Every structure is written in structure tokens, then in C-alpha cells.
User: Which sequence fits this backbone?
């Protein structure tokens, strides 16, 4: 069998198209699914680097993006450190990620833009956003696997029985039926056929936050999502600078079909289409 490319995916934001009527939307209202791709044989090096970072900072619990960003939970101690000490931690964390043989990849859906585009068109019959994001993220990762002459094995973070069953059904449908989108409106992306997807998508497994690779997927996903709104967001711009995103290794021709997908971003959608803007940050 061909060697494997591993895709580790996490998700950020609610899977529902609509928020509750009284719910205050966040500054950036999105649903994102993605994380990183890594050649199977490089995983041991990634786990060793993760372990070394945790040892340097006396961490024996998962690296959780939300807690790190807000100095909360297990990372409440960051709030008690000096600004210089906090900066040292963040710099070490980024340097560790930058040293890894991984690339970030994701699909990010702007919720207001999605509703503006599809609420009336598919009234009462809209998918959960995870169906769209999962299909797009896997297809683009499958194209990377084909380019490396590999098959794709997917590791998703376990969210719950119902949520995990949904991903299993999406995975099976991709292999059996191909991409779930309207062929006429998605033709410009040259969607992969069911035969090609079946030949490339090898397996889907679930991991918990105890998995070092799942933790790293979590750490990469949020910057990729916010980068769709603000390409100068520091964590995102550093990933671009150090070429840790798949976009940084694609040609202008391949970017729309293989790069990070920013869906329904309206004006912001230029980030997915405009290679020059990305490369200027590198």
C-alpha cells in the first residue's frame, strides 16, 4: 500500500448555521474545521518536539488553544507571569510549531456570509456547517496526498457520539458518492470524483485532546480562521512568514483548489483567491 499522509482536524465555532436569537455573536463569527497534515513517518519527530516543549514549561496537560489565548484553565499561570515571561512562552510555542514537518490546512465558513447567501435559497433545509467544512477540508487534503503519492488517513477530535456519527457518515458518503455540492456551481473547483476520493481516503479515526497531534491541530486552526478576517493577526502572520500553511507552498493555479478555503467571506474572500497578498506577508 502507498504511504500515508495524516490529516488531524479540530473544529472551532458552532456547527449550526444560525445562532440562538438572544446569543451575542463574537467579533469573528465563523465555523472552522481543519488543523494539519503530516507524513506518517514524521509523527514521532513531531511528538518528540511536543514533549520537549512541555518539559521546558513543566506542562503535563494538553495544550489547549482557548486556555492559552486567555490565560485560563490549566494556563491560568500565564496571567501571573510578567509580560516578558509570557512573551517568552508564546515565542517558544511558535518556534516549536515552526520547526515541525507539518502544514496547516482548513475550511473556514463566515456564518453571516453563509446565511446571506443561502438562508433564503435553502430555507429550512440547510446543512450543518460541519458537512461543508469537512468535505472541503478532506478533498483539499486528498489532493495533497495525491501530489505526494500517498493515501489520506484522517484523525478527527472526538466531540460526542452524535457529532462523531455525523463525520463518519460524511466520510462514507465522500467515498461512495463524491463531493456533495451542486456540480454546476462547484465546477470551477474541479471537484474530485467518488472514484478518486475512494482511492485516496483511507480511513477515519477519532482522537482525544491527549493526542499531541490533535493539540497542535487545535493550535493551528484558530489563527487560520482569524487570518481570513485579518491577515495581520500576529499568530497567522507568523505562520505565513515561516511557511507553515499549505497556501505558502502552492502555485496561484493550485491555490483555489488545494489551499485554505475561506467560504462565504464576501469581501474577505479575496484572501483565498489572492496569492500575492499572502506571499507579501512571507
Assistant:
Amino acid at each position: 500500500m502507498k504511504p500515508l499522509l495524516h490529516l488531524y482536524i479540530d473544529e472551532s465555532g458552532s456547527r449550526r448555521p444560525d445562532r440562538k436569537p438572544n446569543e451575542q455573536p463574537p467579533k469573528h463569527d465563523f465555523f472552522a474545521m481543519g488543523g494539519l497534515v503530516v507524513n506518517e513517518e514524521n509523527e514521532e519527530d513531531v511528538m518528540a518536539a511536543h514533549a520537549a516543549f512541555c518539559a521546558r514549561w513543566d506542562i503535563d496537560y494538553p495544550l489547549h488553544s482557548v486556555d492559552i489565548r486567555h490565560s485560563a484553565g490549566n494556563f491560568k499561570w500565564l496571567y501571573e507571569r510578567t509580560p516578558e515571561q509570557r512573551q517568552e512562552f508564546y515565542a517558544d510555542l511558535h518556534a516549536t510549531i515552526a520547526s515541525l514537518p507539518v502544514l496547516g490546512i482548513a475550511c473556514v465558513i463566515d456564518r453571516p456570509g453563509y446565511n446571506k447567501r443561502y438562508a433564503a435559497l435553502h430555507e429550512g433545509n440547510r446543512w450543518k456547517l460541519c458537512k461543508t467544512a469537512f468535505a472541503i477540508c478532506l478533498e483539499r487534503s486528498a489532493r495533497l496526498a495525491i501530489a505526494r503519492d500517498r493515501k489520506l488517513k484522517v484523525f478527527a477530535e472526538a466531540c460526542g457520539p452524535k457529532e462523531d456519527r455525523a463525520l463518519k457518515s460524511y466520510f462514507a458518503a465522500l467515498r461512495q458518492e463524491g463531493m456533495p455540492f451542486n456540480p454546476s456551481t462547484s465546477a470551477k473547483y474541479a471537484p474530485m470524483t467518488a472514484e478518486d476520493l475512494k482511492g485516496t481516503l483511507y480511513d477515519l479515526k477519532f482522537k482525544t485532546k491527549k493526542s499531541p497531534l490533535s493539540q497542535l491541530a487545535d493550535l493551528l486552526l484558530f489563527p487560520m480562521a482569524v487570518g481570513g478576517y485579518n491577515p495581520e493577526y500576529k499568530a497567522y502572520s507568523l505562520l505565513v512568514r515561516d511557511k507553515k500553511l499549505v497556501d505558502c507552498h502552492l502555485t496561484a493555479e493550485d491555490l483555489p483548489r488545494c489551499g485554505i478555503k475561506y467560504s462565504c467571506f464576501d469581501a474577505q474572500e479575496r484572501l483565498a483567491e489572492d496569492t500575492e497578498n499572502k506571499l507579501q506577508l512571507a
